[in-house]
Amino acid sequence: xxxxxxxxxxxxxxxxxxxxxxxxxxxxxxxxxxxxxxxxxxxxxxxxxxxxxxxxxxxxxxxxxxxxxxxxxxxxxxxxxxxxxxxxxxxxxxxxxxxxxxxxxxxxxxxxxxxxxxxxxxxxxxxxxxxxxxxxxxxxxxxxxxxxxxxxxxxxxxxxxxxxxxxxxxxxxxxxxxxxxxxxxxxxxxxxxxxxxxxxxx
Length: 202
Hints:
Order of helices and strands: HHHHHHHHHH
Shape: elongated
Number of domains: 2
Structural class: mainly alpha
Radius of gyration: 21 Å
Number of helices: 10
Distance between the termini: 67 Å
Strand content: under 5%
Helix content: over 70%
């Protein structure tokens, strides 16, 4: 009897998971094709071919889905940076290491189909405190690892505060750089970000 109950639950769970994934995929498709302003529970339901009420079984509202999509996009972009970090020569210094990483971040963010739009949306709908990655975030982890690769050691008593300052500055300044369509202007901003943080850390 237990086996029968288990086999009947699994398809239901699988269908629920598939429907949730479809809602996410259809929302992303709308963002890519029509922009974030076109996203509504009605447009998502139409895209997915489901009743509007079904969306509320899995998400609070459309914003709940957009936040999730932004986290996914952010992880994909920072993932590209993490991959580059693995290829860099250890001990080459802060500036050289981070200049390379910032440019990879900018390129990955620019090429990602939804990152800029979702970042812009999140920045407009939340406070600076809410959108800035904190300790133990993906960006914080990248900063820690990049400092190790660069061979930059922070004063133990100031390490926590310095890392938090760096993550906050990077989050804000990189957002500014990826808004630039002109690569030369973005490159100049990246150079300034690198100079600012090099002076801070070294």
